[in-house]
Design a protein that fits this description.
Length: 436
């Protein structure tokens, strides 16, 4: 790698990390396309099926802060490699499991490895790219990585329906092993000659750093941002989207897979746009977040009011709006980056990442519980089950507004005053008139 120019070397390192994250998303979402098959293989009720994903997400969320601390101590390469290998082992267990306890252990391993990957890949971006490009690269990482859902929605689903459960999940494990080889060969924590990181913190310093990151209102703003914007699209993509479209809306499994692909592709288009907006208007990031939360709640309201099966155009609109959830949730990581010093960014990003996955596992479990009580995989049961999202949107919106107010107070104390949006728009219009 030393023979590559600096810019090309940076993109090569990023590509290796991106591959690891893309494979992590494949492993994470593989159970979603196999939801109905898993219910049959393990004789699982809707509540029990939800429990599989809830456990995986619970492990992921619970590990975010410890992973952030470990990341600050051991560096990104070790964490990404450990994550890839752990997920690969988990998928091998999924492939051979026929009993519920073994399947549970397998999904715990997948959730553990998944937890190691994303924030570790993000952590190397400031070392390899100029600060101005970091928000865009963060969005590109998050959004291109989501094409792992396409790998699970089409190739993995095709193998699953054609060759069976074992071959499908062993294939996913093989892809993970390949990603591990690439990470080992290419991925680097920092450019050659860059200053070495500070010595590992003591346990007391780790605790102080965790407390300092949490006390920072910008970190909490990132957490509520991630929680409010991520969960609806993630729950739809990881578990309940395909069963809902097939059993709740009468679509074929193939058509449902196509809609999941549309979700990922639309998110990939929106990601760079959101990243550029975040870079250009860092003081207006929260308005983007609140707009996405509002749009998602609105389109779900319309879909649930329409008796199933809903028109195809409305389901496509739902998927397009859900596609905005991932890009807007990445704004939470940008808050963690800009409001915290370098030495505790890993910890802050870990705190932020807890938000979306806690909201997601809560929603996943509640949807499964309501489906179980309301009659199983029926259109009417799904209409009732999806209503559990609305209290979560309300809580997270309040959290964003409260944390934003406190974060702006901190900015004002540092000399940066954020004018009200209407006043800023009027000022912008006046400046444009003068320019003419």
């Amino acid at each position: 790698m030393a023979t590559f120019p600096a810019a090309r070397r940076a993109y090569l390192v990023w590509s290796a990390g991106l591959l690891a994250y893309l494979v992590a998303v494949l492993q994470r979402s593989s159970f979603g396309v196999a939801g109905l098959e898993a219910a049959e293989r393990f004789d699982a009720t809707p509540t029990l099926l939800a429990g599989f994903l809830v456990l995986q997400l619970l492990v992921y969320a619970a590990l975010q802060v410890p992973v952030g601390v470990l990341l600050d101590r051991f560096g990104a390469k070790a964490m990404v490699l450990a994550g890839v290998l752990t997920m690969t082992a988990g998928q091998v267990l999924v492939a051979v499991s026929t009993s519920l306890p073994l399947a549970v252990v397998a999904r715990v391993l997948v959730g553990t490895g998944d937890a190691f990957t994303f924030i570790s890949v993000l952590s190397v971006l400031p070392a390899w790219f100029a600060a101005r490009r970091v928000p865009l690269m963060t969005q590109l990482t998050a959004l291109i990585g989501q094409f792992g859902q396409v790998l699970s929605a089409i190739p993995l689903a095709t193998v699953l329906h054609g060759q069976g459960w074992t071959v499908a999940f062993l294939s996913a494990a093989a892809v993970g092993a390949l990603a591990g080889v690439v990470v080992l060969a290419v991925f680097r924590n920092r450019p050659p000659g860059a200053p070495a990181p500070a010595p590992a913190a003591s346990p007391r310093e780790v605790l102080d750093g965790l407390q300092a990151a949490w006390r920072q209102p910008g970190t909490r703003l990132g957490l509520w941002t991630h929680a409010g914007t991520q969960f609806s699209g993630l729950v739809f993509a990881l578990l309940w989207g395909v069963p809902y479209l097939v059993a709740g809306q009468g679509m074929s499994p193939e058509a449902a897979s196509v809609l999941l692909t549309v979700l990922v592709a639309a998110g990939a288009v929106a990601g760079p746009v959101f990243g550029e907006f975040t870079a250009r208007h860092p003081l207006r990031r929260s308005w983007l977040v609140l707009s996405v939360i509002g749009a998602t709640a609105l389109v779900w309201t319309v879909v649930l009011l329409v008796p199933p099966p809903a028109p195809l155009w409305l389901l496509v609109l739902l998927v397009l709006v859900l596609a905005l959830n991932g890009p807007s949730s990445a704004v939470g990581f940008d808050y963690a980056r800009t409001f915290n010093p370098v030495h505790r960014r890993g910890t802050a990003v870990g705190i932020v990442n807890v938000g979306g996955f806690t909201a997601s596992l809560t929603t996943t479990l509640l949807v499964g519980l309501v489906l179980g009580v309301a009659g199983g995989y029926t259109p009417e049961a799904f209409r009732v089950a999806w209503l559990v999202q609305f209290p979560i949107w309300a809580i997270t919106t309040i959290g964003v507004l409260s944390a934003r107010r406190k974060a702006r107070r901190v900015l004002a104390e540092e000399g940066t005053v954020v004018p009200p949006l209407l006043e800023a728009l009027r000022r912008h219009r006046r400046m444009r008139r003068r320019a003419r």
